[in-house]
Amino acid sequence: MTDPASTRVLLVDGSQLITEGLRISLHRTHCFRVVGIAHTVADAARSLRGTPVDLVVTDFDVPGAGPLRTVRDTAQHRPGARVVVLSNADSPSWARAALDAGAVAYLLKTSPVAELLPLIVAAVRGAPATIDARVGSLARLPARMPPPASLGRLSAREFDVLAEMAKGLDNARIAQRLFISNDTVKTHVKAILRKLGARDRAHAVAMVLSESSDSFVTT
């Protein structure tokens, strides 16, 4: 996949403003063919099942499920497609999780369009796995690096809960975002603390962020 003009793109974000802005910018600047727009995980999954795509540009945490669900759905339904994750969070652990889930780039939504679009084009053309230079002050990761040991001990749902904890959300808000009960969140939090050997929620988040940052290598 080397020609942006022949690249079929699915845009996935809870904000209509963001998806429309990306659609216009991608078409005007590089003539990408945006063949689908989705605002929820369910919409994205339907698009992936029904529409051939070469590139998925998705938010880290799309409404309707836990973080990176659309990245995993792409790997299942369109294994040849490349995935670029856009996020508001300059979190090394989230960047690592995105690439480990199968994304080829983790970019920040706060980037100027003039900087963002060339990185998306580079991803289409097969550039090495990339994260925004402002994330942990690092620019690149080798593709498919092993996850940090701490994250490797967590289940997929426990990681979802940990990602929400890192945003500073309380149990009630986490339950609402992940569509689970408060009691289930409490059970996951206890398991996270036990598996990580953390004193409390803040300690658990700090441990994973520190370990993820130490595992990055620059080029």
From TrEMBL:
Keywords: DNA-binding, Phosphoprotein, Transcription, Transcription regulation. The keyword Transcription regulation applies. It comes from the Bacteria. CDD domains: LuxR_C_like, REC_NarL-like. One of its GO terms (molecular function) is DNA binding. One of its GO terms (biological process) is regulation of DNA-templated transcription. It holds the Pfam family GerE. The keyword Phosphoprotein applies. Residues 147-212 form the HTH luxR-type domain. Transmembrane segments: none annotated. This is DNA-binding response regulator, NarL/FixJ family, contains REC and HTH domains.
